[in-house]
Amino acid sequence: MTIDALASQAAVLILGVIRHSGYTGILVLMALESACIPIPSEIILTFSGYLVWTHALNLTGVVVAGSLGSLIGSLAAYVIGLSGARHFLVSYGRYVLISAHDLALADRWFARHGDATVFVGRLLPVLRTFISLPAGVARMRFVPFVGYSLAGSAIWCFALADAGLRLGHHWRALGPYMHWLDRGILVGGITLIALHILRVRRSGMENGK
Hints:
Elements: H1 3-34, H2 41-53, H3 59-83, H4 86-92, H5 100-113, H6 116-121, H7 127-130, H8 132-137, H9 142-170, H10 179-207
């Protein structure tokens, strides 16, 4: 299967889960994204914001579901770091699209900036997916970890969901052509996933040299 075909199937799956499962789907997908599984939250939340515009979802519900999902996934990665199982992800993460380069990036950020990195990291693409792991390895205190993770996640979820909502308002004048917005989001999702797959494969090849 080609990278484009794999990315296309993944993007269709993500949008389908949100459309048919609503808040539960958002919570589950965001939990996976924050547990070091690189599902693009940019697509999850922007599309969810678009569904708010269509009145299929509520903005508050999207932000709450996304934030709770992010916290659950962050806690899972934090526990993995505490347990010493990080080496397993380093060795076998490429099979679930976890790049050793991304893990190293999160390590460097946490080592340089300390606990506050958990908050800042939740606001940055790629880094937000992996930052909880080095926090666990460093045995960051639990309460600050939860507080920073939840605060950063809530801001991220609101910003992207609001962007999707505003995008819907912008397209209001096009009425009958709204299906193109679905296609645009899908194409964006395919592009993000394809780029990540390529990055992980290149990282794996470089590490294998």
